[in-house]
Amino acid sequence: MTRSALLVMDVQLAVTARYPDPDYLPRLATAVDAARTAGLPVIYVVVGFRPGAPEVDPRNRMFGAIAGRDTPAQAAEVHPAVAPRPDEAIVVKRRVSGFAGSDLDMLLRASGIDHLVLTGIATSGVVLSTLRQAADLDYELTVLSDGCLDNDPEVHDVLTGKVFPMQADVTTVDKWIGDTLTNHD
Questions:
Q1: What's the CATH superfamily of 4-181?
Q2: What angle (nearest 5°) sits at the alpha carbon of residue 175, between those of residues 146 and 28?
Q3: Confidence check: pLDDT of 177 > 80
Q4: Assessment of whether the complete model's pTM goes beyond 0.70
Q5: Are 105 and 3 spatial neighbours (Cβ–Cβ below 8 Å)?
């Protein structure tokens, strides 16, 4: 029997501030609330580093600018509109993929989870990287297309319309709630 979890990735205050979309957080909150109501685990994935960011190589194009610097503590804080409950897991990753430098795979396997429902910011970042790695780790995958956000709508559309369907089911928050969660045991 398949056991699913909703992954909410990189929906941190520092990230959401760079992706202004007034409809995104309420829509994502709907997915989070529906997962909780259906009894599905909601797992949060955030990017974070130790003081001085010793995990970051200055050659890294994405994170190199913070090598040797402290990041503010609130940088890892999930946006309050979709904040985790005290009993929900928060996984800290060190790169783009939710699996990179984290214990996500161990947590999922220990919980018997084999199906991931992916959401997050950005579609071309954490969602793409996590999807690819999760597929290689043999997880079943669903992507909530409108539960993902990217600064480039064209890239978002190409990924959710053409790339992701090769390795995942792609649907919307409302369709996922109506088709999947309503019939969830």
A1: Isochorismatase-like (3.40.50.850)
A2: 40
A3: yes
A4: yes
A5: no
